[in-house]
Amino acid sequence: MRKFNFGYLFILVTVVFFSTYEVVSKTIIGKVDPFQINFLRFFIGGSLLFLFLLIKRDVKIDRKSLMIVSAAGILNVVFSMNLLQLSLNVAYAKAAVVAVIFSSNPIFVSIFAAVMDKEKITLFKAAGMFLGMLGIAVISINGQAFRDINILSPLLALMSAGLYGLYTVVGRRASSKIGSIKMNAYSFLIGSLILLSVLLIKGLPAFKFDCSAWPQVVYLSVFVTGIAYLIYFMGLVRTGAGSGSVVFFLKPVLASVFAIVFLGEKITLNLIFGTFLILLGMAVMFYWEKIRQRFV
Q1: What is the pLDDT of residues 213-222, one digit of tens each?
Q2: Are the beta carbons of 136 and 276 closer than 8 angstroms?
Q3: What is the distance between the alpha carbons of residues 96 and 89, in angstroms, rounded to a whole number?
Q4: What's the pTM?
Q5: What region holds the EamA domain (predicted)?
Q6: What CA–CA distance (Å, rounded) separates 61 from 81?
Q7: Strand partners, 29
């Protein structure tokens, strides 16, 4: 009897956690400042990952890796995640739309990898990028008259996805040397401490906000940021890095379902068609060679 690979279960649980991020964040708008949410998320989540490193007695990091990890933390925590939160705070922003656009970040990973790491962009990758960007445009327009389009929320989500793609390329340089858990533990903590200085400059308290939002804040910090990242990397160890792409294939689908069930959002034809184009684009980018070899 074949032994069950728990790595796929870990990946599946991670997908569910990640898919709830935009929906849960939407429920605390007006109760917690976006900068507060991200400070708490990454400070608490980073502390959990660092605690795991302490248990393993593996906290040492060299100066060069620390510099790269610091850059990754600034890109992810200070810029990308705050833009994502701000995109949800825009009037009439849809959690499902934001989730789908952010899930296009693997497209930007390929772009930045080509520029920074000299990775070749093949014809099928270029075709996949085109399909993905076309899907983003379809979702952003969302079937409205041009004069009525509120482009700010999709634009902020797109900027967040782009910066997350850059963070991924920068972060994997450190990950290849010190490991993904250590890279994220340090980048989360460094990014959150820099974000703390932003809160102080803005005159915002770090831990004081509407008490009714604490359950969501704890969930986003402990489960979506801490536990989800930890089991994600545990899953990748057991299944291989390629399986990680399933997170960004399933996230927009699940996030849309959660938005319908818990927020009462209406899913438009534009969102469905745009999501299909983005998923098709990523499938072409990641799996075209395997598909071609199987059928040719």
Answers
A1: 999 999 999 9
A2: no
A3: 13
A4: 0.84
A5: 6-140, 155-286
A6: 25
A7: 32
